[in-house]
Amino acid sequence: MPDLTHPLVIAAIILAVLCVVGVVWWAIARRSHPHGVEDAQTTPEPPSVIPDAVAEDEVHAVDQPLQDIIESPSVEEPPVEIPEAPMTRMQRLRGRLARSGSLGKAVLAVLSRGNLSEADWEEIEDTLLSADVGLAATDEIMERLRTEVKVRGDVSPVEAQQILKQELLAAVGTDMDRSLHLDKAEGPAAILVVGVNGTGKTTTVGKLARVLRAQDKTVLLGAADTFRAAATEQLATWGQRVGVDVVSSEREGGDPASVAFDAVKEAKERGIDVVLVDTAGRLQTKATLMDELGKVKRVMEKQGPVDEVLLVLDATTGQNGMRQAEVFGQVVGLTGIVLTKLDGSAKGGIVISVQKELGVPVKFVGLGEGPDDLAPFDPESFVDAIVG
């Protein structure tokens, strides 16, 4: 029997045990991995896969800043409006006058009675005076009416209408120049717009810009009402709607004369046809403010002559509007009147009185709040509308 303590025997036993263990381990591994142990040990891990839903450019965009990935929504400018043509405006305003022309209706009602008594003539006279026709103009109209009726004898309603139209048309006047002087050989036509507080002056400037744009004129607005920030904003809104720029002061309360000067200068440099300058509303009784208005005009004239000075009057103010017109005329020399709120009421007679007293024509009238409710004044249309 071999010696189990001999080193060679011990080594042989250990080797045999290792062989048995190896055979057992190999058999177990074979059952677990039928394709072989080597395959199980060397099979690589699958690579990371980008989902099909993620595009290649989106993968590269991960490193980009967030503001480059998210596009800001584009802000579109509001479309430029096409203002209504002047002739269309006149037809529409004439219709409004005809629907509410109380002046003509009241006078015609008396004239059509026939065999007029003195009380009837006094009623006609009161109607004209209450319509703000003015005392002097009323006296002239009454004298001509009496003469015409006396010559004809008793008149029919149709004849009364013809007589009244004839006399009112003579009083309104058909020979006055009511056009805007816009055609110049050099530089822009300069228009200064003035008036007291509350007459709708800034709104009128915006509406007048629409009238000029409808005539294919290029326009620049000057916001010389520097004491009201709202006036500048309002003017900018009007300009934006028809594609017209506005020159304004950089600070509230700036020098209005400087704004007016800069507006005319810029219009000249840009080859603009017409520059419209809005001014702050002021009471005709305030000497300091009226002097400031005179300065605005003088400074504008350093760039060239002021072609039009338009006074905006509220037709409903009646004879008080006449006193306003007189003072403004003395300070800046008016060339025309814009009558707002001429809705065909009893105050329509101010058209006659303001022209007679000042010798200044009414050039534009406004009959509503719409953006195109301003039209060139036409005497024939006005008289036809209020008489019927």
Automatic annotation (TrEMBL):
GTP binds at residues 195-202, 278-282, 340-343. Its EC number is 3.6.5.4. Residues 361-374 form the SRP54-type proteins GTP-binding domain. The keyword S-adenosyl-L-methionine does not apply. Gene3D superfamilies: P-loop containing nucleotide triphosphate hydrolases, Signal recognition particle SRP54, nucleotide-binding domain. Involved in targeting and insertion of nascent membrane proteins into the cytoplasmic membrane. Acts as a receptor for the complex formed by the signal recognition particle (SRP) and the ribosome-nascent chain (RNC). Belongs to the GTP-binding SRP family. FtsY subfamily. This is Signal recognition particle receptor FtsY. It comes from Scrofimicrobium canadense. The lineage of its organism: Bacteria, Bacillati, Actinomycetota, Actinomycetes, Actinomycetales. The gene is ftsY.
